[in-house]
Specification:
Elements lengths: L2 E8 L12 E4 L4 E6 L5 H13 L8 H4 L3 H4 L3 E11 L5 E12 L4 E5 L3 E4 L2 E4 L5 H9 L3 H8 L13 H12 L1 H114 L8 H78 L6 H101 L3 H70 L7 H59 L7 H36 L16 H125 L9 H57 L2 H83 L2 H76 L2 H46 L7 H55 L7 E12 L2 E12 L2 E4 L6 H19 L5 E5 L7 H18 L6 E6 L2 H8 L6 E7 L5 E7 L1 H4 L1
Parallel strand pairs: 3-13, 3-14, 12-13
Antiparallel strand pairs: 1-2, 1-4, 4-5, 5-6, 5-7, 7-8, 9-10, 10-11, 14-15
Helix pairs in contact: 5-19, 7-12, 7-13, 7-16, 7-17, 7-18, 8-9, 8-15, 8-16, 9-14, 9-15, 10-13, 10-14, 11-13, 11-17, 12-13, 18-19, 20-21
Length: 1298
């Protein structure tokens, strides 16, 4: 059972928002009392509990008004928080925290709910991750309406049981959770209707699915037959393919040998051409080297050594070049570094100049400041260090002066304060004395008034005694009348009715057993129904099938009998099939021959097209080249032109060397012409010749590139011409021999095709007539098989129905489920009426006994009152003496209070004088202290400024700026001198690099001559190797073998054509079969037939299960509706019973015997009725509506009692109930009886773990009545402090008892 432990409130309503104002309540079991005056925050506790558990704000309150007002707190932002610690229904301790925030804007306040937390088992969950409201409600184990309207009902809503009918109905519907069950019933009804509609659709669709399923079975049989024929054709193809493999292998071997022969012939031609070309190139190169005298006789090793030595020499020169280049880069890098160093020094120089200027200005500022401060504080010292010492001494003197004045102030202040405290203690003493006297005076006055009241009442008691005596006689008469009534007759009638009740219960139990029996039989009956429906469906489908095939079978067989139809049709099919096969064999022979001739014709036409296309491609190949007329003549011309270009390239390469040697010889002293060996007339002529030679040498590389380019073009054309010679030969052969032979063969085959086609047409006419009969029998045969199978299934189903009927039990109930349910409902109604009559008669007996008990209790009460009055009359003299003593005491207390007031007035005057004196002393001292502190602050500022300037000047003097400036100037000059030296070094390195590059160029010319000699020797060796290879090819070529291979190839090609014709014929028929198979498969795989069987099965299951679900939903609807009504009736009886007990214990008036909550039939929602509620009061046998007829006190009392009854009925898991101001509008007697009733409730439920009754009230008398039985040890007092904020304090309950 869930219960509360602690509640913490901060920033809600009148509870302050600071941490000090946070208040906490600890809830006790079984009772917690909260006492306080009006407006101190008692109802806020209920509001906080309601908000923390359900998240609902108080009625009529917006978010901002629920939080502490920012205007009262003097803040723009207020944060509020509520913490609740409780034990949930599982026994776990849970802490819930909800926080809020309010901002004060210019004209309005803005409310925000902050993030909340819920902590359980040391795990904290944020409101962003969980629904705190739902979790808390689940933890208490009751619904939200019960929390709002019963457990934590707000004071403004506490009288909801006597509100208008619509509001009352809404509250009770929420508490009973009736809306949820009504929606469930509506949903069940809606689902049942949907299933009924679906069942009709499923039955309709099932008929169409049955037709599709039968068609799919027939198509699958056709597919199997076609697949067998395809398999036979494929086997025949594989046999042919096996037979043609040896022929194909031999053909490939012959073609490879012929290709090898042709390759050797082509290779010989290419090698011969290359040999002649290389021979010509070697002669030209040898001639050119002899002309220039560069043909060397050294060995190949010696020449290679020269080339290697040249590489080493060049490598050495390049390494020197690299070293020189590195030296150049180092010098240039040093120049860059010197430039950077110079720039840095220039910047330093500028900085030092600026620091020198700052030093001078700072020195002037220091002198000015010392002069100013010295004049102000009379210090004549000019030295900064000595000046600082004198200034700091003056500061210390000022501080000593300030401390002395402070000590004097403290001594004066303490003297005056001691005098003031003495006067205040006198004032407190006199005030307390006056307060005590006043309290004693008020108590005495109260006692005096009570004594006077009692004396007055004693005067009327004599008359009261006679009235009580007459009332006692009347009560005695009524008691005697009630005793004469005989209740034994009612008890006999009750026993008879109970016997009737037992008999009805036996009948109801028998109906329940019948329902169980029917439920157990339902499965067998449902199976029999399903089998019978299947049998009817089979019979109807058989009849439709017979109507469909009867005419076709009669056409084939002459008559129709459904029992022997299958056997007769199978005999006819076997006869037709043999005739069909014979006709098909004859037709296939003619078709094969025709197909073979067509394939031969196609192969010849394709071969002819290939040869024609080959001829066209060869002619296009010739037309795209420059060798259209005679390729051999063009090849010879190109060979001569290539030789000329190679000679020219050799001349250009050697002339470069000669021009270089001529120029070098003419640069010597006394030069001669290198051609005629004559001397030149002057140096200008020599220079002119050298320039001309160098110009001609410069043109040689371009001329060499151009000539080499022409040579490459000519060589590529030569290769192209040599490759086109076989093309010319092939074109000639095609035109003269191969194409005419193909035309003659095609003409003869066309004549043979015409003769064969006439024979095929005659065989086809005979085959068509047999095929028509066969197709008709084939189309009917699947339907006949289906009919035969369906007839057998019908017989099987009939057997199953008989077997299922045998399974039915002997005690078979020959009633439907609805009939037994109706019989049970009638018996339940009779049983209910009988129980109502029994209850009414028992209530009459209880009321009779209760009236008799009430009259006896009233009789006893009057007797007691009579005795008390008699005893009080005897105490009259004693009360008169007490009255005289109280009057004397009052006069003496009044005199003492007047004397104390006279002594208090001069004390108040003295306190005011001392307080003014303290204020004047404090103000004067504070003023002088402020002036001294300002002066001291200025002196300390001057001290810090002068000290800082002095330290900066000393640092600048120590840095030696003049010496640094001179050093930097010298460094800049040395950088300039070093840069000049490095510039000269860079020029020297560049000249050295130019010389090394010239030497490397001379070595390249010499190396070219050596390479030409080595190339000539390599060309001679290649010529020898090519000549030997040509001889080897000539020995391998044999022309006789080539002709024998050609004849074999022709024979094998003819055999291959025969195999191709046979394969084409079989492939043609195979394609037709595959096409037919594809079409049938496409039809099977179509959406209509692909899953026809599965669709039929699924739809059949859907249809049957939907019907079963429909029946079950009907049962569920009736069972739930009945359970809801029964639950409502039982709960209302339980609530009214508890209300009756509490009302009779509590209410002391005689105008209302009891109250009850009555239910009336309201409007119908669908097929179900709803209830309206109202609270009625009972007076005798009369029922009257309580709303509008009861007083305010009766209204409050009725609402409390109804809430107590609801709490006991619905709060099984939650033992908490909070009552806010339960004594509102109640008189003293009803307050006392309410207290007694609540104590009885607490005593009855105190043994329950977690039961908590929380009472919030301002009525001290009510608390005293509850506290007398010591059900609780402490109570909580709520009050407002001096700041107007609510406070909660825990006190001992004995304060009320004493």
């Amino acid at each position: 059972m869930s219960y509360l432990k602690k509640l913490s409130i901060q920033g809600i309503r009148s509870f302050g928002a600071d941490d000090e104002s946070r208040q906490q309540i600890k809830f006790y079991t079984p009772l917690t009392l909260l006492v306080g005056e009006n407006g101190c925050g008692k109802t806020t506790v209920i509001e906080a509990l309601k908000y923390i558990t359900t998240g609902d704000m108080p009625p009529g309150a917006k978010g901002a008004s629920f939080v502490h007002d920012p205007k009262i707190a003097g803040e723009t932002e207020i944060k509020a928080q509520i913490r609740l610690l409780y034990s949930d229904i599982t026994g776990a301790t849970v802490q819930v925290v909800r926080s809020m925030q309010v901002f004060q804007k210019m004209k309005k306040t803005e409310f925000h709910s902050l993030e909340g937390f819920i902590k359980r088992n040391n795990q904290s969950i944020s409101s962003k991750c969980a629904d705190i409201e739902a979790d808390t409600i689940a933890g208490f184990g009751v619904s939200k309406p019960v929390l709002n309207n019963v457990i934590f009902c707000h004071q403004d809503d506490s009288n909801w049981p006597l509100s208008d009918g619509k509001t009352l109905k809404g509250k009770f519907d929420d508490i009973f959770a009736a809306t949820r069950y009504i929606k469930a019933l509506e949903n069940i009804k809606k689902i049942r209707q949907e299933h009924a509609a679906n069942a009709k659709n499923f039955d309709t669709e099932l008929k169409y699915l049955k037709v599709n399923k039968d068609k799919a079975v027939e198509l699958k049989k056709q597919v199997d037959c076609t697949k067998e024929r395809i398999e036979e054709s494929k086997n025949r193809l594989s046999e042919i393919e096996t037979q043609r493999i040896p022929n194909r292998n031999e053909l490939e071997s012959i073609e490879n040998k012929m290709l090898q022969y042709q390759t050797l012939i082509n290779e010989k031609t290419v090698l011969t051409n290359l040999y002649s070309e290389k021979h010509r190139d070697s002669k030209d190169l040898e001639k050119r080297l002899n002309q220039h005298g560069m043909l060397l006789s050294d060995s190949d090793d010696e020449l290679k050594r020269r080339v290697a030595a040249k590489d080493d020499w060049v490598a050495e020169l390049e390494s020197k070049l690299q070293q020189t280049r590195l030296s150049l880069e180092k010098a240039e890098n040093k120049i860059v570094e010197i430039e950077k160093d110079r720039e840095v020094n220039v910047v330093k120089k500028t900085k030092i100049e600026r620091e020198l200027q700052d030093f001078k200005s700072l020195d002037k500022e220091q002198s000015r400041l010392i002069k100013h401060v010295g004049q102000k504080y009379s210090i004549s010292e000019k030295n900064p260090a000595a000046f600082l010492d004198l200034l700091r001494k003056a500061i210390a003197d000022k501080k000593d002066e300030l401390e002395k004045s402070t000590k004097i102030f403290k001594s004066n202040f303490c003297d005056v304060e001691a005098s003031l405290n003495n006067k205040k203690s006198d004032h407190v003493r006199l005030t307390e004395c006056i307060k005590m006297k006043n309290e004693q005076l008020s108590k005495t006055k109260k006692s005096l008034s009570e004594i006077k009241t009692k004396l007055v009442s004693l005067g009327t008691d004599a008359n009261r005694v006679s009235l009580i005596t007459s009332e006692i006689k009347k009560l005695q008469k009524k008691i005697n009348e009630l005793n004469t009534t005989d209740t034994n007759l009612f008890e006999k009638e009750i026993r008879k009715l109970q016997e009737q009740e037992n008999a009805l219960e036996v009948q109801v139990n028998k109906c329940c057993k019948d329902l169980t029996t029917i439920s157990s039989q339902a499965a067998v009956k449902a199976k029999i129904d399903v089998l019978q429906k299947n049998l009817d469906a089979k019979r109807s489908s058989n009849q439709s099938l017979i109507n469909k095939i009867e005419s076709d079978v009669a056409t084939i067989l002459g008559s129709f009998c459904k029992e022997t139809c299958k056997l007769e049709l199978e005999k006819f099919l076997s006869k037709v099939l043999s005739e069909y096969n014979e006709a098909q064999i004859a037709l296939n022979k003619v078709s094969v021959k025709l197909q073979s001739l067509e394939n031969s014709k196609k192969s010849l036409l394709s071969e002819m097209q290939k040869k024609q296309s080959r001829k066209l491609s060869l002619e296009n190949q010739l037309s795209n080249s420059d060798f259209e007329n005679n390729a051999e003549e063009h090849v010879n011309e190109l060979t001569q032109e290539i030789g000329k270009l190679q000679n020219k390239i050799g001349e250009l390469k050697s002339s470069s060397f000669f021009y270089e040697s001529y120029c070098s010889s003419m640069k010597e002293d006394n030069p001669k012409c290198p051609v005629c060996y004559r001397h030149f007339p002057n140096d200008d002529a020599v220079e002119e010749v050298i320039d001309r030679l160098q110009h001609m040498k410069a043109k040689i590389p371009d001329l060499l590139k151009l000539t080499e380019k022409k040579l490459r073009l000519k060589e590529s054309r030569l290769v192209e011409g040599q490759s086109l010679i076989p093309v010319f030969n092939e074109i000639t052969q095609l035109e003269k021999t191969e194409l005419p032979e193909c035309n003659e063969q095609i003409a003869s085959i066309k004549q043979e095709i015409d003769n064969t086609r006439r024979k095929f047409e005659q065989s086809e006419e005979a085959f068509d007539s047999i095929d028509f009969n066969k197709k008709l029998a084939d189309s009917v045969y699947p339907h006949v098989l289906e009919l035969d199978r369906s007839l057998k299934e019908c017989k099987e189903i009939e057997k199953k129905i008989l077997l299922e009927k045998d399974k039915l039990p002997k005690n078979f109930v020959n009633k439907t489920l609805e009939e037994v349910n109706q019989e049970k409902e009638l018996l339940d109604k009779k049983l209910k009426d009988t129980r109502i009559v029994i209850s009414e008669k028992q209530n009459y007996i209880l009321d009779h006994r209760e009236k008799l008990s009430n009259l006896n209790s009233k009789f006893n009460a009057l007797e007691c009152e009579k005795n008390e009055i008699n005893s009080s009359l005897q105490q009259e003299n004693m009360l008169k003496e007490k009255k005289v003593n109280c009057e004397l005491e009052l006069s003496s207390l009044s005199e003492e209070i007047n004397l104390a007031n006279k002594e208090l007035s001069p004390v108040n005057v003295s306190i005011e004088i001392f307080e003014k004196k303290l204020q004047n002393i404090s103000e004067a001292h504070n003023k002088s202290v402020e002036e001294s502190k300002d002066a001291l602050m200025k002196m300390q500022n001057y001290d810090s400024n002068i000290a800082k300037n002095h330290s900066d000047l000393i640092q600048l003097q120590a840095s030696q700026l003049d010496e640094h400036f001179k050093k930097i100037t010298d460094t800049i000059q040395s950088n300039i001198d070093r840069k000049t030296e490095l510039d000269e070094e860079v020029v020297g390195h560049r000249n050295t690099m130019d010389e090394i590059k010239n030497n490397i160029a001379q070595q390249a010319t010499l190396a070219q001559n050596v390479e030409d000699n080595l190339r000539l020797r390599a060309m001679r060796m290649d010529l020898i190797k090519q000549k030997s290879k040509i001889k080897e090819i000539e020995s391998n070529c044999n022309e006789k073998d080539y002709h024998s291979l050609s004849s074999k190839r022709s024979r094998l090609l003819s055999n291959n054509d025969d195999f191709d014709r046979e394969c084409h014929r079989i492939q043609g028929s195979l394609k037709e079969l595959e096409k037919s198979l594809t079409a049938t498969n496409a039809e099977i795989n179509s959406a209509q037939y692909k899953s026809a069987a599965d669709d039929f099965k699924k739809m059949y299951i859907k249809s049957k299960t939907t019907q079963i679900v429909q029946v079950d939903l009907d049962k569920y609807y009736k069972a739930l509706d009945k359970a809801v009504m029964n639950y409502h009736r039982l709960k209302m009886a339980e609530i009214n019973k508890r209300i009756k007990e509490l009302w009779r214990q509590t209410y002391k008036g005689n105008d209302i015997d009891t109250i009850l909550i009555s239910t009336e039939d309201g409007e119908y929602t669908g097929t179900r009725k709803t209830y309206n509620y109202r609270v009625q009061m009972v007076r005798g046998d009369a029922l009257m509506e309580m709303r509008g007829r009861c007083s305010a006190g009766q209204k409050v009392l009725a609402s409390i009692i109804i809430r107590l009854a609801l709490a006991e009925t619905f709060c099984f898991n939650c033992g908490v109930l909070a009552l806010d101001e339960p004594t509102t509008n109640l008189d003293s007697s009803n307050i006392e009886s309410l207290a007694i009733a609540l104590k009885n409730v607490v005593r009855a439920r105190c043994k329950q773990r977690g039961f908590q009754l929380i009472i919030i009230t301002h009525d001290v008398r009510f608390v005293e009545l509850i506290a007398r039985d010591e059900l609780v040890e402490t109570y909580f007092k709520l009050f407002r402090n001096s700041d107007g904020k609510s406070r909660i304090e825990e006190h001992d309950i004995r304060d009320f008892i004493l």
